[in-house]
Design a protein that fits this description.
The complex is a heterodimer of chains A (about 290) and B (about 300).
Chain A (H helix, E strand, L loop, with lengths): L2 H4 L16 H12 L4 H7 L2 H14 L1 H4 L14 H8 L2 H14 L1 H9 L3 H5 L5 H19 L1 H15 L3 H5 L3 H24 L5 H26 L9 H12 L10 H22 L8
Chain B lengths: L2 E10 L2 E11 L3 E5 L6 H9 L6 E6 L2 E2 L4 H7 E4 L11 H11 L4 H14 L15 H13 L5 E5 L7 H16 L4 E5 L3 H7 L2 E6 L2 E7 H7 L1 E8 L4 H9 L3 E4 L5 E6 L5 H10 L3 E6 L4 H9 L3
Parallel strand pairs in B: 3-8, 3-9, 6-7, 7-8
Antiparallel strand pairs in B: 1-2, 1-4, 4-5, 9-10, 11-13, 11-14, 12-13
The chains are: A mainly alpha (about 290), B alpha/beta (about 300).
Chain lengths: ~290, ~300
Amino acid sequence: MSIKERGYTHWDGKLKESRFPWWPISRLGIRLTFKKKFFKFFFFLSLSPALAYLVGIYVSERMEEFRFMVQESVSFLQINPNYFKSYLTGDFLYFMIILILVFAASGLISDDLRHNSLQLYFSRPLKKRDYFMGKSSVIVFFLFILTMIPSLVLFLMKLIFSGSFKFFSTYPWLPLSIIGYSLLLTVFFSFYALFLSSLSPNRRYVAVLILGFYFFSDILFGIFKGIFHSHYFSLLSIKSNLQQVGALFFQQKTPYEISWVFSLLVLLGVCVLSALVLRKKVQGVRIIK
Amino acid sequence: MSVQVEDLSYSYGSLQALKGVSLHLPPGAVGLLGPNGAGKSTLLRILLGFLSPDKGEGKVLGYDIQNNQFMIRRFVGYMPENDCIIPGMDAVTFTSFMAELSGMPKQEAIKRAHEVLFYVGLEESRYRNLETYSGGMKQRLKLAQALVHDPRLIFLDEPTSGLDPGGRKEILKLIKEISTEKNIQTLISSHILSDIEEVCSYVVILNRGQLAAQGEMANLKQLHYRLYELKVKESNPQFWQRLKEIDCRIEETEEGLIKVYMSAGKSHQEIFKIAAEEGVQIRHFVKSQTRLEDLFAKVVGVD
């Protein structure tokens, strides 16, 4: 008997309270991102710096064999915390993170606003916190693949290629630094992207905002620094603030002559502001007063 | 009682959307009627916990609307009024995703999604991208997502809007089936009176945020008033005025037919008596069959 002939049937099971009610949102978000045009190309392209750094570690361990290739740039191939810092604070990696955000995060909330689907989420036993967890974990997934996982793999490969634990015993705190800084990058960019995604129901507009804010903040810093010759204007730039704090995590000299505390406060400020806006923007019903 | 609220009030800033509404809805299909801005959607949103009432209290399926919103949402299905989809996916993915959010295991959710999509008549297009769906298909999809977790109560906000006559008839048949034969309580908010009349046995009418009438459809239509249709030889304003004075509501149709809504306690003899006193000749007098439309016009005060 077909379902239509049989009519509506009740479900025998029992609805359960999940410990991770946000998980279906994350899974769906990741799946939909991979279905987007050109995403896979950019995603694999974004892993190219990690590959280059891996080659660097291999070459540094076989310096004698590659001496003919690396005459001048031996200093770059010194594997130390600065090597990992330069991977995680590199311009190209940041650029790729922004590109991945354009694909993966621009529509996360804006599509729900455009298609009125927030009421569908919140008519289910789902808290606002679960909704944000689900959405942000899509970003976390992709950014971990770009930051934490390759960095930890690089660290591991260094140990494997060198065939000893000397590097680990010299820098035992390095894995924690990698995890800590990757978490900071991920949390910051999650707030940044979700905040911008909640500002408009048009995902293309959000994509422009994600790219625009990042580059505009850096350009603004360049202009003011050129005019006033003050490093304090680095606080205007997202990239510079991340690099300042990155230097702290890897116990390196900060690139600008100001305290890293200011940069950390700026980044935290952006996160708090984003959280406040998100809380206001994401509602089960839109009330037009 | 599936839904009971006491003295519920809610304001959007200075605009009071609900003013002390008290309801006790029985099981079965209940129609929620009212003109635009009557407070129907606000009431549904409060019952689902989207909005917190300024005053009053209530229970849905025995769960408090302010403290047990998650339990309410687990056992209630909601079909919103406006189009809402999640872009980039097909109907099976969408419906099973909604089931998972309600707490259904993944495999069961997929199986159940297929079942309800067949049930609402989307079997042919269940693998099509949702963005290519017509308005009518989106309506069916919204019904499917409201039913997928097998709720004990469903809130349907304008369930037939955007449907062609055939589709409307089918959806109403489905709603009638689930509310009468499958023991799922249904609260339908609609401005299409004939839909409510066809499906619901109990009706609630809201007007300007207040309860205008509620009760069994049959009782409301018979007990509250009687409807007479009459034609007179020459219209006499004094005659109409005197009818209004005895609490009759009068409407004139385009065909020159006069509808007189008379309170249940009064006799139609009074119309003849006033006509005789005012010298009006009645040429046509019929006790008309009352419809929901008439009740609505009477209590809301609109044509």
